[in-house]
Amino acid sequence: MPDKQVIVIGAGVGGLVTAIQLAARGLQVRVLERAEAPGGKMREVAVGPHRIDAGPTVFTMRWIFEDIFEAAGARLDEHLELEPLSIIARHAWSEQERLDLHADHERSIEAIGDFAGAAEARGYRAFCEQARTIYTTLDPTFIRASRPSLMGLMGRCGLSGLGNLRGVRPYDSLWDMLGTYFKDERLRQLFGRYSTYCGSSPFMAPATLMLIAHVEQEGVWSVVGGMHRVAQVLAQLAEGLGATIEYGRDVTGIIARHGGVRGVSLADGEQIAADSVVVNADPAALTGGRLGAEVRRAIPPLTPERRSLSALTWCLSAETEGFPLARHNVFFGRDYASEFKDIFGQGRLPRDGTVYVCAQDRGTDGNGTLNGPERLFLLLNAPPRGDRHDFDAVEIEQCEQRVFSRLEHCGLRVRRDPERMVMTTPVEFEQRFPATGGALYGQATHGWKASFSRPASRTRIPGLYLAGGSTHPGAGIPMAAMSGRLAAEALLADRRST
């Protein structure tokens, strides 16, 4: 029956995985996407003849995608070509201060010892052991749980499981906890950066985010053809299972009457009936009224003060010299605290911000050299004020000068041409992802309770579900995919119960 179909709003990773899971079980699924291509934040930007990944650039937790493909009767390696990186990332503080983290754990220990001394190498070994313990404890009990709560976590872990977390003081920040392993401030910067993977400050994020170190040690891959290839393959898999994906379809409202969802309305005036709707958009679009007054209170309100980081990004084709770029590179300033005080405290662009550079034509071993221009993606953390503060041209230009000066301080010279460069600001991210202010990770994970307050799959309205990196279990491609699985499981369980 037509009204028994499921509507998925958004063809980001979470929405596509939801569609795959439901279509594989025989449900009629219709995905409506406002953009002209799948992927959401996993997008490409055209710079002249080049296509540059302009969103997530790291592929981890491969096994999550292997499970998704297997459940759909397919194999991941038959659809995606993945190349393991031998160098996870290259880090620099100046021309003389460089440190690589390797896929080979012992090589990383040796590199840290050479960089900062034997005591720091021992601290890194202990840090990694604790990161592994945190991950193995929280993976089945929190990440894969449909609705996170402290009591639920305690119930699933048991006393013995919670004992595995005894080395992590629950009220400590990631930054403070890193100080128990590292005396070298540069190493605290390096591993404190894990908090920015979920759009947060290391000075306010919980120490449990140490688990990201273990995730990286389990493998980091490069996707042949670019990260956007992941979205394309997921869309093809969903369609192969019978789901339909319609692009250029702008959903402006969710119809909810008589105690449940009844369908959606589109910008062109069309209404589509459905008894289940999955929203693969930032939950702020719900609470902000962007999808109609009828569903505004489907989840507790989300305030702008809780937003995660936004960004200034540059996609460019340029020649480089000096610094030996790997695939993933991070260039640090000296005053790490000032970066987050500027962003979260003052709501301004950082004066001494960390710059991430993805050199998308570099080999997986980090030792390649290129003749001629190469594709680069640069990212600088920024305040999520795209709906309140249109950064003026002078402010943006001064920030850009600081970014490329930071790179030159570390030995990287980029011969950039404004005609071969595309910038995206928080204002433009707000336009792409309404009601977020340009925040790219949903709510910031600040304080030990934050992980339990992230919106879950189910809402207060029967038949209305959430998926995406702004929902539980969190930001990042693997977690967005997991959110899609959780949304599908919740929807199927509710159908069985009725």
TrEMBL record:
It comes from Allochromatium humboldtianum. The chain crosses the membrane at residues 6-24. This is Phytoene desaturase. Belongs to the carotenoid/retinoid oxidoreductase family. Pathway: Carotenoid biosynthesis. Keywords: Carotenoid biosynthesis, Membrane, Oxidoreductase, Transmembrane, Transmembrane helix. NCBIfam families: carotdesatCrtDProt (NF045637), crtI_fam (TIGR02734). GO terms for biological process: carotenoid biosynthetic process. Residues 14-492 form the Amine oxidase domain. GO terms for molecular function: oxidoreductase activity, acting on the CH-CH group of donors.
